[in-house]
Amino acid sequence: MKRWTAPLAALTLAATTALLPSSAASAAPAADSSIAGITGVGVHNAYVQATFPWMVDALESGASMLELDVWQNFLGSRAYQAGHDPGNANNCSSATTFANLRTGSRNQNFQTCLRNIRLWHDQNPNHAPVILKIEMKNGFDGRNGFGPTQFDTLLTNALGADAILHPAQVKGSASTLDAAVRAGAWPSRDSLRGKFVILAETGAFEAQNPFDNYDTDLEYADHLTSLAAAGTLGNATMFTTINGASATDPRTGDRGGSRAQWYVTFDGDANGWVAGSTDFYKNGHYLLVMADAQNVAPAIDGRNPTVQQATDRLHLLAAHGATIISSDWINPAILSLTTPRS
Predict the structure, then answer these.
(1) Using an 8 Å Cβ cutoff, are 159 and 117 in contact?
(2) pTM here?
(3) Cβ atoms within 10 Å of 180's Cβ, excluding its own
(4) Would you give the DSSP letter of residue 128?
(5) Predicted confidence (pLDDT) per residue in 176-227, tens digit
(6) Residue 212 in contact with residue 139, Cβ under 8 Å?
(7) Which of 103, 148, 263, 326 sits between 20 and 30 A of 218, alpha carbons compared?
(8) Of 228, 226, 232, 245, nearest to 290 (Cα)?
(9) Which of 306, 116, 124, 139 minimizes the C-alpha distance to 223?
(10) How many Cα neighbours within 13 Å face the side chain of 60?
(11) 24 pLDDT exceeds 50?
(12) Does the CA dihedral 78-163-288-174 come out positive or negative?
């Protein structure tokens, strides 16, 4: 992160403060321009055709985060599927060129969705950073070739290693990823132009599956531990993410111990975050996603609120520590909004 000299910082802060309304100026903390310190807007289930007819529409909306649901098809086609339920139900095009991304057939597999993303990325190499929130609906299955290693390889081959912010790049020479983040190691949002930040979290189906006690976030945390021990942490493509609101450190029980060091990204229902303190997350410089932002009182429309309503909600949740506020909003004038996290 770039450091200002004291005189320049003072002059810049004074100039910036003079341009702000008095209420904003009095509340403004020291600026954090990192990917975790700038609050943006995300799209819940960005692959749904009713939200965006084509995946490229979601990418061009200006959203700071796009959520994708992935199923491992252990049988049949043995491909990764993209949809809310098992099977492929999505807005990803079969096209193989950027010019044709709004043509062809939809309801493609996850690999094809990644091809859509790569074609857009290649056409827009200086795009603002995009967080890809991957909900692994039914988890990994390394025994059948669908483990974390294979998924890392898939993402690297599809998007390109240089297009991904890797956990190893954030960790750097710090003792742990957690120590690095607490020390302010997240890159600035501006420096991440042309990059994807990928979050891996346990899916709803897996979380409720009584026969699966090895949730995605736990398995990927162990994967990170193994890679670090082998000196190959650079192969990891995703940040393992805890889904669930908690005012205090949720890295306890199964998510504690040696796994805790890898959890620097968190997700949960916005109402749950607003109901309690998020000082732990703000003070730790952690990346925090708040879902269902529209439901926080006073509730606003989940599809088409006014720009002012969405802006007010963004500022409200930024003040509560959000890095991303997520909803089913579709207006690019809303999805492209950002504000400093306070």
Answers:
(1) yes
(2) 0.90
(3) 21
(4) P
(5) 999 999 999 999 999 999 999 999 999 999 999 998 989 999 999 999 999 9
(6) yes
(7) 326
(8) 245
(9) 139
(10) 14
(11) no
(12) positive
Helices 148-159 and 216-230: crossing angle, nearest 10°?
80
Per-residue pLDDT tens for 96-118? 999 999 999 999 999 999 999 99
Query: In 20-107, which ranges are continuous DSSP H helix?
Result: 22-27, 55-59
Record the tokens describing residue 260, joined without a space.
């805790």
Considering the chain, what percentage of its residues have pLDDT values greater than 90?
Answer: 83
269 or 11, which is more confident = 269
Asked if 236 and 165 count as a contact pair (C-beta separation under 8 A), the reply is no
Residue 199 to residue 196: CA distance in whole angstroms: 10
d(CA 76, CA 295): 39
Both tokens of residue 325? 């506020």
pLDDT, tens only, 255-302: 999 999 999 999 999 999 898 899 999 999 999 999 999 999 999 999
Residue scoring higher pLDDT (142 or 261): 261
* CA–CA distance, 185 with 169 (Å, rounded to integer): 9
Encoding tokens for residue 63? 């959203």
What is the pLDDT at residue 337? 98
The answer, yes or no, to whether residue 6 has pLDDT greater than 70, is no
Distance (Å, whole) CA 85 – CA 316:
33
- Number of Cβ within 10 Å of residue 15's Cβ equals 9
Residue 76: predicted pLDDT: 63
Q: Give the type of residue at 192.
A: L
Query: What beta strand segments (E) does the chain contain?
Result: 38-43, 65-72, 80-82, 130-136, 196-202, 238-243, 265-269, 287-291, 324-327, 338-340
CA 37 – CA 133 distance, rounded (Å): 18
Report in angstroms the alpha-carbon separations of 249 from 100, 120, 184, 219, 225.
Answer: 46, 37, 18, 20, 20
